[in-house]
């Protein structure tokens, strides 16, 4: 039997988050564009990988500046048939070595790598990793928002939370809840955030600021019982 989360996630919270997602036209368009790209370029040759990497970086703002070098790294990893499609693959994709003069520098791009794997390898197997999702996931599981998890730790926790729910949910649905709820709680300064943070996604901020009664009701539902809007 799956361990019960410290902070239960209710069906109504999930439903409300998905209803709010339907109001985010920019977010929806980004996901649809990447899905379309995956269908149009299913392979992992260098040119396809470069195009996919550039799209993820531009549309999701993952702040990778040496995209061509990153694409070479991805091509090298994905060309190795000995690397299984497990969470460890994302860690391999994320760790990129750059040569700058006489220096060899390794950068870790987990957020980028998880999005690349999610959209272009398997959306069901690879949940999207970012700071909001990590903090919300650990908040639900342990009651305290943590940071700095490896992708393997994040994926294991994601599966644990998903298995603990008493209603069916897809990887993408849980992804969307974690990111949206994390942004909402950060904006309001609710646990596991300690103070309000205004630097959230601009589209979500405009939505949360909407005076529309339906939107305000949905944001209250996402927060769960006992939380003020």
In short:
The chain is built from 11 helices and 2 strands. With 229 residues, it is mainly alpha-helical.
Write the layout of secondary structure elements.
Elements: H1 11-21, H2 25-40, H3 46-60, H4 67-78, H5 87-94, E1 95-100, E2 103-108, H6 110-120, H7 131-142, H8 151-164, H9 171-188, H10 202-208, H11 213-223
Antiparallel strand pairs: 1-2
What does this structure look like?
The protein is mainly alpha-helical. The chain folds into 2 domains: 11-27 and 125-223, no CATH class; 30-120. 59% of the residues lie in helices and 5% in strands. The protein has 11 helices and 2 strands; from the N terminus they run H-H-H-H-H-E-E-H-H-H-H-H-H. It has helices spanning 11-21, 25-40, 46-60, 67-78, 87-94, 110-120, 131-142, 151-164, 171-188, 202-208, 213-223; strands at 95-100, 103-108. A two-stranded antiparallel ribbon has the order 1-2. Helix 1 (11-21) crosses helix 9 (171-188) and helix 2 (25-40) runs antiparallel to helix 3. The longest helix has 18 residues, at 171-188.
- How many domains make up the 3D coordinates? 2
Radius of gyration: 18 Å
Q: What topology, given as strand order, has the largest sheet?
A: 1-2
Specify the biggest β-sheet.
2 strands, antiparallel
Protein traits:
229 residues, mainly alpha
